[in-house]
Amino acid sequence: MFLGACRDYTERLTTCIFEIHQGDSLFRGSNSAGALAGRLGKVVAAVAVLGFVATGCTQAPPAKSASDGSGATVVRVIDGDTIVADLSGTETTVRLLNIDTPETKHPDKPVQCLGAEATEFTKSLLAPGDRIELAYDVSRLDPYGRTLAGVYKDGSLVNADIAAAGLGVAVLFQPNERFYAEVLAAEQQAQDGGKGLFGTDVACTVPAMAQDAIAGLEALEDTVPAGVEAVGSALGIVAAAIVAGKAKSAALQALDGSGDAVRSAVWASRKATYLPLMSAAMDRAASIEKKLSAKESALVQAKKEAAAKQAAKVKAEAKAKAKAAAVAKAQAQAKAEAKRKAAAKATAERQAAAKRAAERKAAERRRQAAPKKTYRAPVQKSRPKSGGGSYSGYTGPRCYAPGGKSWKPC
Fold first, then answer.
1. How far is residue 167's CA from residue 197's CA, in Å, rounded to a whole number?
2. What is the chain's percent helix, strand, coil content, to nearest 5?
């Protein structure tokens, strides 16, 4: 602070001498004795102040206020934290100190979250033609040649008003810290009220991203369905939510040191709150996933066992059915064989009967065709008589020899 005060006073003295030189140069205008005396008096006064600075910087400088700056007129608003003002007839680009709003016109970056809203809010505060007061700190210019200042309108610090709306964050680039405390307090009010960059109504804000990541995981149902298909469906939902939660968490943590300085600052101020919540939500989701996976494995195993049991039952039934079919087939074959044999036997019997009948008929025909025998009474044998030969008792037909004295049976 001591060195900063010295630099500030030195800068003010240099500016004073420069203005004296530009507005009333020792080497321009009238060279009358009176005019020269007046100009020399101003230089002497400036040198006296320089001597005071050189010897009196051991004491703290008096506190600065809005009244120590320069009056100016708003020309236009460039973005949330940069304006163009008419300063003593010169259009000057003014970068508001200790406040950083989302980028809208960076040549290498896209429009950042709530950048357009921040620009519009600043426009609503600083319309063209509005009278403002510029209050300075140690460094008057930034590396881009812009004038660094606190901007007051109607006694209110616009730098802090932007932060209070949640459209910018407090930023400290040493040695310029004059407005930091007031802007930081305004930022804290916005954070407490959930406004702008600290709200959840715009999807791109850090709180909205964190809440979305947490809500997506907390919305998972901690119940395990009974059916394998329902479990598989629930497991798919949980797995997708975990993947999305990890991606959203990674996107938030990637804000650390990212090119999005504003959201990076918001994340830095809120991650101590959000990280434990996201971790707890992720752990819960992982626990649900584990239970669903175990249930799915059990159901799949049970289904496999049931399928194996059913397959064994079907196989046994098929085997029994095949055996029954084989028995039935054997019985049918045996029955057919018996029937065939019976038919063959019947055929043979019919053929035998027909043959016997034919034989009977043939015998009958032969009998009928044979000459009929005449019955003759049996010849009583008698003792042969003389001349009768040895046919004693023969009574049948006789055949006599010539002369009729001997005979023999005919």
1. 6
2. 55, 10, 30
Q: CA-to-CA distance for 94 and 127, rounded, in angstroms?
A: 15
Q: How confident is the model at residue 48 (pLDDT cuts 50, 70, 90)?
A: very low
244, 217, 242, 238: which is closest to 296 by C-alpha?
238
> For residues 72 and 183, what is the distance between their CA atoms, to the nearest angstrom?
22
The verdict on residue 122 lying in a domain is yes
CA dihedral 351, 355, 356, 358 (to 10 degrees): 140
Using alpha carbons only, what angle is made at residue 163 by residues 157 and 164, rounded to the nearest 5 degrees? Answer: 85
| Residue 79 shares a structural domain with residue 46 | no
Tokens of 311: 């397959």
- Of 66, 51, 186, residue with least CA distance to 121: 186
CB neighbours of residue 156 within 10 Å: 13
Helix (H, G, I), strand (E, B) or coil at 99: strand
Same domain, 182 and 210: no
Question: Residue 17's domain spans which residues?
Answer: 2-56
- Do 157 and 173 form a contact (C-beta atoms < 8 A)? no
Beta strands in 114-213 (DSSP E): 131-135, 147-153, 156-157, 169-170
* Residue 390 within any structural domain of the chain: no
Token pair in block for residue 10: 């030195």
Q: What is the mean pLDDT of residues 145-157?
A: 97
Single residue among 304, 338, 356 that ends a domain in this structure: 304
Residues tagged active-site: 95, 103, 146
In a domain? residue 311: no
Whether the Cβ atoms of residue 242 and residue 282 lie closer than 8 Å to each other: yes
- Name the pTM for this structure: 0.60
CATH number of the domain within which 188 lies:
2.40.50.90
Segment 388-408, tens digit of pLDDT: 556 767 788 888 888 877 878
150 has which bridge partners?
A: 135
What is the enclosing helix (H) or strand (E) of 77?
Answer: strand 70-79
Q: What is the C-alpha to C-alpha distance for residues 295 and 298, in angstroms, rounded to an integer?
A: 5
What whole-number distance in Å separates Cα of residue 164 and Cα of residue 101? 12
